[in-house]
Description:
Blueprint: H1 3-35, H2 40-66, H3 72-89
Amino acid sequence: MSQIILGQVQFILIMLCCGMGTIAGYDVLRLFRWLVPHAGLAVLLEDLLYWSAGAIPVFYLFFLFHDGEIRWYGIVSILLGIFLYEYGLS
């Protein structure tokens, strides 16, 4: 295989793992919410902060692999990783 194709396969696998890691972190947040009940506004703020912080590694990977261009297959890989974790491992 050419280096370009190997790089794209690597990118897809890394984005898949990034999606799984992002939703695994959200599972930790859900566990925290289960242990310490929160009001509606606190949940909203926690979600806002979590997903804002969770977007940083995603955009860093896009920047690292594709100079900041957001590719559709990267987004699909992240969503697939979230789906696989949520309905498989979680």
